[in-house]
Amino acid sequence: MATQAQMQPxxxxxxxxxxPTPRPPASQPIDWGKPRKREWGTALRALIKLLGNxxxxxxxxxxxxxxxxxxxxxxxxxxxxxxxxxxLAYHRVELSQRFSDRTWIDSLPEGSVGAAYRAFxxxxxxxxxxxxDVSYEDAEIERDVEHPHAWFGRRERDIHDIWHILTGYQADxxxxxACLVAFSYSQTGGLGWAFIAAGAALKSLKITGKRxxxxxxxxxxxHGKRAKWLSNEDYEALMYEPLDAARRRLNIxxxxxxxxxxxxxEAAGLVGx
Length: 273
Prior knowledge:
Layout: H1 40-52, H2 57-67, H3 71-80, H4 85-91, H5 95-99, H6 102-107, H7 113-124, H8 128-135, H9 148-158, H10 160-167, H11 174-188, H12 191-208, H13 212-226, H14 235-238, H15 243-249, H16 256-267
């Protein structure tokens, strides 16, 4: 996701005579056993904001909450049906914490998925905890909820940047994010991902008049369908695996159309489309 900056509270206090700023109404507890109702209006408003500012990652989470319905529940059940899924669910590792352990990250061998992730962190300045904090910016009630479905949702969030590493789609450009959200739609079935991918593709058509961007996004969707199901991976173990070997084992395709579109956009000065 394009940015993971954390909002810092202001130290400025209002004068005594000034009326306090009204607080938003408290969020209602979430019933994690039931699918969320789809809220198309909320999703559309968030998409418009996201397309206007690709760095506004808060809007991504609003879209996910508005449109993904029972995606988390279905994929958690699928996880339990796999060979190692029961073990992963039993241990419930919080990957945002693991991926924020810089001592561990620095210990991962050169050429591995973890080493590529380390380079990604150093290049972008992103962090797993930063992404987690952004995800709670307007949903603090969801932080650290003790429910299997909530844990699985956090896990899906936390592996997003590892998917950037595995697929080769850059995280700090709109094209790379659009391709990965299309890949993610095929992997998870989350309608929010498809909504973002479609919006980004339509914006590119309007600006460039060409289908290069769209073709790269569709390639991402195809690669997501052909790849093994990545939500079933043991990500602590995966971080030690050589990157090229992991891509072969997981059947993740070479993003040729993505690189072509990336080159064309760069030549046209439209990398930040």
